[in-house]
Design a protein that fits this description.
Length: about 400
């Protein structure tokens, strides 16, 4: 716990928020946009430093931020008077207003009128801050909102791409936040491994990570990816009431949004019980560990995305069908870029983009054979530095299977 406290206390939140807002505004200027309207709570958090009911507002678009290229943002805050930490206290928020949502939950058949009022207010803000520029980046928008803005001669551009680019390079403070998230996740993982015994359910084991995250001021977990025994093959099966048996492999992916809203995306596979593991389990595990170690070395600054993927570990034929992506960006959540494995290089977007210092990736492996009983999932989080990749996640591998 002392290590967690030291990491938490070392974060300069003023510098953290200032860096992120400047990244967004610099990107707006680069794209010749007067402002952005952000609904995604991850983007709102990045630009303003504020959080409120994040999971709920992922599907109820009643909280948003107007971020001009030159002035402080206006936060349209849901339930502003009831916040534990009022947004008015944030130096990255210039004004707080009540939101104008038009979800059917609140608006019913008045949706068109409520969308019209929303667009009218935003058009006024754009006129005040845009200097005649009517280009507005929006990360999520339905047809009603789009048409309502167009009635005011607003040109809407893709704010999702703009924000992903803004979030790409992490500051020193963000790296500390990611280290803290990984440390919290790894404490939960250790508690899971200590608690793992034959006879407990997958759900009971999975709940330990959730409890640890909330206990240490984390926020939520994005998926339920934990499976055991025959449910580890194929991958991507959610945690269930299945009873874990002696000798089972237990695989999981944390997908954890921890303290300060930063993501710990780590995977491990444990062996349940006191046994040493079967030859097949050890072969699967060895291949997954080899893949991670090889791919770690390919994330070198200055390489293009294409060059990194072309140097990726080559799957043995028997594991090729269930091949998993090579790596993806990580910050406040899973982020751009996504690097597929070599066999799927035709799906690589932005192949000539360059790996840069300050990027953070999760490198992944899933090894399983079609018709096999089990599979192994491993994943680590790494920071790109001037001299190469370094690990942010440090949880040990399962020694009995190495």
């Amino acid at each position: 716990m002392e290590h967690l406290d030291a990491l938490s206390n070392s974060i300069d939140h003023l510098a953290l928020r200032g860096y992120r807002l400047e990244r967004v505004q610099a990107r707006l200027r680069q794209e010749d946009c007067a402002a952005a309207v952000l609904f995604d709570p991850v983007n709102v958090r990045y630009a303003t430093g504020s959080r409120n009911m994040a999971v709920w507002t992922l599907h109820n678009h009643v909280r948003y931020a107007f971020v001009p290229a030159e002035r402080l943002p206006v936060l349209f805050e849901f339930g502003a008077g009831r916040l534990a930490t009022p947004a008015e206290e944030l130096e990255t928020v210039g004004e707080v207003r009540p939101p104008r949502g038009w979800t059917y939950f609140y608006s019913g058949d008045q949706k068109p009128e409520h969308a019209r009022l929303w667009a009218e207010e935003l058009a006024e803000l754009l006129a005040e801050s845009g200097g005649g520029n009517r280009r507005l980046a929006v990360d999520h928008l339905d047809p009603l909102g789009l048409h309502a803005l167009q009635e005011h001669q607003v040109t809407v551009i893709d704010g999702e791409a703009l924000m992903e680019r803004a979030r790409l390079i992490k500051s020193e403070q963000e790296v500390t936040c990611l280290k803290l998230a990984c440390a919290v996740a790894e404490l939960g993982m250790a508690r899971m491994q200590e608690a793992l015994v034959p006879g407990m359910t997958e759900n009971a084991l999975w709940s330990i990570l959730h409890q640890t995250n909330i206990e240490l001021d984390g926020e939520w977990i994005e998926t339920r990816l934990l499976s055991s025994g025959p449910r580890t093959n194929p991958w991507m099966q959610e945690s269930s009431p299945r009873v874990i048996e002696d000798g089972d492999l237990v695989a999981f992916d944390t997908d954890m949004i921890g303290p300060n809203g930063y993501c710990a995306d780590i995977s491990r596979t444990y062996l349940c019980g006191e046994g040493a593991g079967t030859p097949e389990q050890k072969a699967l595990y060895a291949a997954a560990a080899e893949q991670l170690a090889h791919n770690f070395e390919q994330l070198r600054p200055g390489r293009t995305f294409r060059e990194a993927v072309e140097a990726e570990w080559v799957f043995p034929e028997r594991y090729l069908h269930y091949r998993y992506g090579f790596a993806h960006g990580v910050g406040l959540c899973d982020e751009f870029p996504f690097l597929p494995n070599l066999a799927s290089i035709d799906k690589l977007s932005n192949p000539e983009d360059v790996i840069e210092p300050g990027m953070v990736f999760s490198i992944e492996s899933y090894i399983g054979e079609v018709g096999g009983r089990e599979g192994v999932k491993l994943e680590d989080q790494v920071l790109i530095t001037e001299t190469g990749p370094v690990y942010l996640s440090r949880y040990p591998l399962e020694e009995r299977l190495l």
